[in-house]
């Protein structure tokens, strides 16, 4: 099964974005424009601010299109 999603990583976390469920509200780009953009591709740049701030913003995504996991705790089953 192919999943139409994208992944972006920094040294701490990986953020995944699923365009199929994004509500295109622009909330992420409005609230953290140094990381998220709706006009530039790639539109997630995790190098532009602190990981803690990125996690806070991902948690505010109303649709669940943005998710994250910590790189060190990635488990493969
Ligand atoms: S906050 Fe979530 S739903 Fe809104 S534009 Fe960003 S990814 Fe899409």
Strand content: 15-25%
Output the strand order for the largest sheet.
1-2-3
Provide the gyration radius in Å. Answer: 12 Å
Average pLDDT value? 87
CATH topology: Alpha-Beta Plaits
- The parts where pLDDT drops under 50 for at least 5 residues are none
- Domain count: the total is 1
CATH architecture label name = 2-Layer Sandwich
Number of helices: 2
Count the strands?
A: 3
Q: What is the overall silhouette? A: globular
Bound molecules: iron/sulfur cluster
Summarize the structure.
The protein is of the alpha+beta class.
Question: Would you write up a description of this structure?
Answer:
With 77 residues, this protein is of the alpha+beta class. It has one domain: Alpha-Beta Plaits. The protein is 18% helix and 18% strand. The chain has two helices and three strands. A three-stranded antiparallel sheet has the order 1-2-3, with helices on one face. A hairpin with a 3-residue loop joins β1 and β2. The longest helix is centred in the C-terminal third of the chain and has 9 residues, at 51-59. The protein is globular, with a radius of gyration of 12 Å. The protein starts with 5 loop residues before the first strand and ends in a 7-residue tail after the last strand. The model has no long low-confidence stretch (mean pLDDT 87). Iron/sulfur cluster binds at residues 22-28, 61-63, 65-66.
